């Protein structure tokens, strides 16, 4: 079997874009299976930087089939902008396939996301305001509109009218704000429909055909374990399933077809948005990591909260996703530090906790228990083999393996494709 699911093992922003791009070279098909344009992947090819929000980064290779699976929520405006942006840079998008079952993000979803965040006040989630949560709410409430519906003018108009009756009532009466006119959305979305039509497909069929033919399929997760709606720090989560199991549902493949799960782990931790973060740093080391690691959101530009690596989180991620290989990213960001800390447990009301707690109240009161390792104080950016790494960097990697229970298979020492050390093949 030749399939791999690649997921974020922390709160997202682990550097999945770079690893997906690297592994995509060996893959035939690359699939996004959840989330939407709340994600942002930065990929650097030569001197060119690409920021992708929806389209799998495999699109940067001419011969890969790239799939937006049924589990993704699609903002057609963003999708078409991304296609145009890629085409303008000479990237051919004819290998893109979009699931006919994927749900649409509608203008009212974005508005509701915005006004709902305002209404929450101090209890806000810190969403990306891209309409992700409201679109998934409609999907689960069974009133969502899918890509297949967009391609059928009559059906689309009927569903839109039905939705707007309710959404306008909500926006006018509850949020005291303006609603939307059917005509306006209809005109806008029907113009998208014809542009999207050539890309629409039965994506589950395509993916399963590829697997059955022995091709290499890479499932590209967005966000991360702790943003998973079931396994994350609820309610400070996104509304989809970034864990490995999400790939089965969001792409239409059976669990028996998944052969490997790669967890992308950043050499430290970061988080955007609200919610507890035990190993967060509020001092100059946190600021240094943020600056060297360029920890500012690809999607929203927000400064990310930064802290030490948390092995309690890693162990938890390995458990809920069955991670069997770690891709360790941004190791070079720690190059200048004298000592590096790893959080190995939490102290809660005088007790040591080693499993990730489910109560946010408990998590908010957890104090990190640290283990300190000496830094390597050496520039890693030109290391290309494990042997090129100084002993202190190797010790840090070994400790991560011991504490997480998973092998490190890939190490990234910079943003470029070449700045990657491959220890074990994924495909
Ligand atoms: P939403 O996905 O826009 O609803 O936002 C919910 C939470 O997930 C917020 O804390 C966001 O900051 C976070 N989030 C969503 N997408 C990403 C991502 O790609 N990276 C990191 N955090 C994200």
What is the topology?
Blueprint: E1 3-8, H1 16-24, E2 29-32, E3 41-45, E4 48-52, E5 65-68, E6 73-74, H2 76-88, E7 96-99, E8 103-104, H3 107-120, H4 132-140, H5 147-150, H6 153-174, H7 182-196, E9 200-201, H8 203-212, E10 217-220, H9 245-251, E11 260-266, E12 269-271, H10 284-292, E13 305-307, E14 309-310, H11 311-321, E15 325-329, E16 339-348, E17 351-353, H12 360-365, E18 367-374, H13 391-404, E19 407-412, E20 420-422
Parallel strand pairs: 1-10, 1-11, 2-5, 2-10, 5-7, 6-8, 7-9, 11-15, 14-16, 15-19
Antiparallel strand pairs: 3-4, 12-13, 16-17, 16-18, 19-20
Helix pairs in contact: 3-4, 6-7
The chain binds inosinic acid.
Outline the structure in words:
The chain is an alpha/beta fold and about 425 residues long. It has two domains: about 1-90 and about 200-420, Adenylosuccinate Synthetase, Chain A, domain 3 (Alpha-Beta Complex), CATH 3.90.170; about 105-200, Adenylosuccinate Synthetase, subunit A, domain 2 (Orthogonal Bundle). Helix content is about 35%, strand content about 20%. The chain is built from 13 helices and 20 strands. It has helices at about 15-25, 75-90, 105-120, 130-140, 145-150, 155-175, 180-195, 205-210, 245-250, 285-290, 310-320, 360-365, 390-405; strands at about 5-10, 30, 40-45, 50, 65-70, 75, 95-100, 105, 200, 215-220, 260-265, 270, 305, 310, 325-330, 340-350, 350-355, 365-375, 405-410, 420. The strands form five sheets. A ten-stranded mixed sheet has the order 9-7-5-2-10-1-11-15-19-20, with helices on both faces. Strands 14, 16, 17 and 18 form a four-stranded mixed sheet that branches. A hairpin with a 2-residue loop joins strand 3 (about 40-45) and strand 4. Helix 3 crosses helix 4 (about 130-140) and helix 6 packs across helix 7. The radius of gyration is 21 Å and the shape is globular. The mean pLDDT is about 95. The structure holds inosinic acid (IMP).
